Fold this sequence. Notes:
Blueprint: H1 2-13, H2 19-26, H3 30-37, H4 45-55, H5 59-62, H6 66-75, H7 81-90, H8 96-99, E1 104-110, E2 118-129, E3 132-142, E4 149-161, E5 164-171, E6 178-184, E7 193-201, E8 210-218, H9 225-230, E9 233-236, H10 244-251, H11 256-263
Antiparallel strand pairs: 1-2, 1-8, 2-3, 2-9, 3-4, 4-5, 5-6, 6-7, 7-8
Amino acid sequence: MSKSFSENLRSLCAERVSIAQVCREIGFNRQQFNRYLNGGGMPSAHNLRRISQYFGVSVETLVLSKDEFSVELEDLLPGDHHRSRHSLDSMFEGQAQYLRRYLGFYHGHFQTPTWTGSIIRTLVWLREEKGKVVSHTFERAYSDDGSVRQKTRHLGLVAYQGNRIYLIESANSEDSFMSSTIMFPAHRQQINLIQGLTMGVASRPRLTPYASPIIWKRIPASVSARRCLEQTGIFPETSTAIDPVIRKRLVETAYPHEFVAQIG
């Protein structure tokens, strides 16, 4: 089994940019991963699941014989359009088992070109639904002169892959707004602050697409959902209502790629 696994793992890694990238994204040190590649031992059940999840194949597929694995891999190639569509749909299936520790409420913080010099705070709710994880994001934006009073609810699906949290959301607004967010948990047990990148685009040309660093702050279970929602809105960059750590990381980051470097 160890030999088949190492051969299959090498085949999967050959499709990636580098072994170093794979190790970094899964969260293994290079020496440990090299043992798996060279057949020096099998991963624990936990690490085997992490590897299978990262490459998007089942644990059972990872330990198939070389010939069986090649056939299985061919079935997953993008040329099989029917299978590709199925794979895209199924990437959200059964994700609750990987994301359960992250379920609950967060305040999301980010910036957009629409509200320059301000930080937007939203309410993000991750919940389980039939094995999937569904996201609800509530956004409120009120201008000082009262000319803009916007309430938007985003509904989406969440997946966990390679120690990253992926959200695809659409809004119940007339602009048919859609957004994509990737969160980078720093540590499996540290979920008080989770950092990432969010991108938004709308169907109407007057709305400018944007990309922004985003930070989620975990909300204690003792705080009511109503109170959480009341704390959302648009805040000046200098507002003391924003956690100083969050304010510093958002305001001092000029470009998204700099933010990735900080959290990668």
